[in-house]
Structure formats: structure tokens, C-alpha cells
């Protein structure tokens, strides 16, 4: 079966850490969507690694890591990630395989992202500017370049044709984007040569053979369910399918091959970039979460917006994904708060509702909170569930009841070892 690990909020829930923790149980770890807009942090043995394209199982001896067809790859960023792993003597030929059907982010995709955001002005999405939107536009617009194209004689012609088209589009935007295409192409082509040394596979065939041979697969999402293009806070979303269904199209496995769906969420909420965020805090509590939680984007370094847990949104995400078990991250960040709050309904058009309505901007929804007693204990060294503070257990029990799914893992710090099974 293919188990899924999904982020249930606006990304940065701690997916990288949990994939790393779970990898020992799997033969294959696979990314199925997104690209280098993701930043997945792993901390172990005193070292910190941030992965953008490479699946978070890469530090284990056994697991094979696959970049699936649904992912978009920037060769330049991919090369940097590979270079950063040079100390680990990883045999990439056997441990990291790339789908021929994954799309390539060109230098001009990044420029188009910048042009589009500049034109939007105040209404900008707050994109990571990694070229994600333009690359998926070319994919669905049937113009894209894929990893498998690098094996064709005429791939350079395809590259040139698409780049020329992009340059015309950038002019059309009539915004002032400074760039030196020669410089960008220089590093791009160096990275392409390195990329060509990797093993390309027909990944859908690979996954289905693996399943027929009884192999276990964990699919690792990028971003979170509230950033999904269909159901997220559109247009303030990313351009891929970050939900359970996305794993089927992004890997080529059928829905009846999906096993467990692990949903992970922070004990509070963060968001980076623009867009509505009903439980966002602008007070001392928000500042405290940001400081203790060290809430800065792993990809862009931007400060993350912070707020209380939104259970209405969490329940929505659990529902669209068919989550079978939950993992709660960063409970340690809430230690020391006298009172903890969670949104348990919205007032929308004068009525109290407990589902996510079409508009969740500040002017459309008012948040109704339920309050919980905080816990004062430092839990970062806690090893067993029995030693977790009672008030935290009560908070977790409330969440489980509200969303109807059990919390099986609690993370109490960024390190691999700071993980408790309930
Ligand atoms: P991802 O994108 O979902 O993999 O998450 P990020 O790596 O972008 O952000 C999660 C951040 O929280 C990283 O800095 C992690 O090291 C850190 N982190 C993960 N789990 C915990 C936890 O339980 N407690 C604390 N304090 N930090 C955590
Ligand atoms: P991980 O995998 C948090 C946000 C951006 C922006 C919006 C669109 O680390 O959880 P894009 O670059 O896709 O055009 O940006 O989505 N965003 C993320 N926020 N974590 C991420 O990834 C994100 N990837 C994109 O900030 O608001
Ligand atoms: Mg992240």
C-alpha cells in the first residue's frame, strides 16, 4: 500500500521531520507534487538539513527516494541540494530516482513568477518566486519541458522555443524585472548536465511494480491542504494538488492502493505569504509563538504569520483527505501560555457555522474560540505520553473529538528523537 503524509494547514507543519522519523518503516519515499517552494527541515545528530525537492527519506540507508511525475524540478536548486549532501556518501544511482514525467522549471519560469507578482502589486500571492505557478501553467497548457525530454536529441530546441515564448510574455507584462538571462542560463545548463547523470525512471511503472512485489511506499506532500489549488484559500494558494487525491495523479497509483493517511498539524497555526487567516494574532501571544517556534520560512526566510489552531479548518482538511491518524507538532511551543485558544466555529453572514465557507476573509468571518488551560511544563525532554502534562492531553482529546480522528504521534521539539507515540 501507499501511505500518505499530508500537511493539514498552510504548510510548514513539520512534514520533513515526520517523514524522516517514519522512513525506517518504508522501502520507498516519494514526493508527488510541488517543487522547491517547499522547505522541509530535518534535524538529527546535531545537524540541520533543509530539503526542497529531494524526499525526506534520503538520510536512511534502506529507502529509495523518488521524485514523482507531479513534482516540478528546478535543476539549479536540485544541484545545490545534491551538493549540500556531499558529506553523506549517498549512492544517488540507487537511492534517488527521478520520474521522466516530472516537469522542469526553466529560468524564465522564475522570471514570469516575479513579473506576475509585481503586476499584482498589493494583491500579490506572496509566492516563493520559485517559478511554480508558471511551470504548472505550462504543464496544464501543454507546453512544458519534462525530465524525459533531456534524453531527446532536440531538447535544446524545445528549451529555446519555450524560453523565447516566455521572453515575449515577460515583455507583455510591462513590469520592470531586472535579469541577465546569460548568467541564469549558464548555471542552468551546468545543473542540467548534473541532472542528466541521475537515473530517470517511468515512475508510475516503478510504483506499481513495487506494490505488486509487496514494497511499502510513503508519499510525502509539499505545502498543506489549505494551499491546495481547488479547495484552499484561492487565489492565495499554490498551483498543485496538495491533498490525498494529488498522490494518485502525482505518482500514478490508483486510489484503492492508498493505505494510511497521516495528517500532520501544528498545535497552533502559521502561514507565510498573503491570504486570509482567520485566527491570525497580532498581539503578544502571536509574537511569542513566532519567537519560541522560530517561525521563519525554511525556503525564503520570511517571518511566518502565527495564530491559534483553527479546528474548523483542520476538520475540513481531515475530511477532504480521509485522514486516518493525526500527528500534532510543536506542542512544546505552547508551553508557558496560561490560556490556549482554538477556533471551534465561525460567525458567517450572521449565523454560527462549523464548516469552511467560500469567503474566510476578516470582513466575512468572525472567529469563535474555545479556551483551554495551558501547561507550564517544559516538554522538550519528555519521552513518554504518561509524562505529558494533563492539560496538554486534554487539549489533544478535544481536538480528536472535534475532528473525529486520533492523534497517534506528538512532536515535542525539532529533533528526530523528540517524538512521542501516543
Ligand atoms: P515542513 O515544510 O512541513 O517540513 O516544515 P518546515 O521545516 O518548513 O518547518 C517546521 C519547523 O519546525 C522546522 O524548523 C522544524 O525544525 C521545526 N519543528 C518540527 N517539529 C517541531 C516540534 O515539535 N517543536 C519545535 N519546537 N519545532 C519543530
Ligand atoms: P512546505 O512544503 C508554506 C505558499 C507561499 C505563497 C503560496 C504560493 O515547506 O510546507 P508558490 O511559491 O507556490 O507560488 O507560493 O504558497 N507556500 C508555502 N507556504 N510552506 C510551503 O511549503 C509553501 N510552499 C508555498 O508562501 O503564499
Ligand atoms: Mg516548510
Describe this structure in words.
With 422 residues, the chain is of the alpha/beta class. Helix 2 crosses helix 7 (181-195). The chain has 12 helices and 20 strands. It is globular, with a radius of gyration of 21 Å. It has helices spanning 15-22, 75-84, 92-95, 107-120, 132-140, 155-173, 181-195, 203-212, 244-251, 284-292, 311-321, 390-403, and strands at residues 2-7, 28-31, 40-44, 47-51, 64-67, 72-73, 96-99, 103-104, 199-201, 217-220, 258-266, 269-271, 305-307, 309-310, 325-329, 339-348, 351-353, 365-373, 407-411, 419-421. Guanosine-5'-diphosphate (GDP) binds at residues 7, 11-17, 39-41, 43, 293, 298, 329-330, 332-333, 411-414.
Strand and helix map with partners:
Blueprint lengths: L1 E6 L7 H8 L5 E4 L8 E5 L2 E5 L12 E4 L4 E2 L1 H10 L7 H4 E4 L3 E2 L2 H14 L11 H9 L14 H19 L7 H15 L3 E3 L1 H10 L4 E4 L23 H8 L6 E9 L2 E3 L12 H9 L12 E3 L1 E2 H11 L3 E5 L9 E10 L2 E3 L11 E9 L16 H14 L3 E5 L7 E3 L1
Parallel strand pairs: 1-10, 1-11, 2-5, 2-10, 5-7, 6-8, 7-9, 11-15, 14-16, 15-19
Antiparallel strand pairs: 3-4, 12-13, 16-17, 16-18, 19-20
Helix pairs in contact: 2-7, 4-5, 4-6
Quick recap:
The chain has helices at 15-22, 75-84, 92-95, 107-120, 132-140, 155-173, 181-195, 203-212, 244-251, 284-292, 311-321, 390-403, and strands at 2-7, 28-31, 40-44, 47-51, 64-67, 72-73, 96-99, 103-104, 199-201, 217-220, 258-266, 269-271, 305-307, 309-310, 325-329, 339-348, 351-353, 365-373, 407-411, 419-421.
Keywords:
422 residues, alpha/beta, ten-stranded mixed beta sheet, 31% helix, binds guanosine-5'-diphosphate, binds 6-O-phosphoryl inosine monophosphate, binds magnesium ion
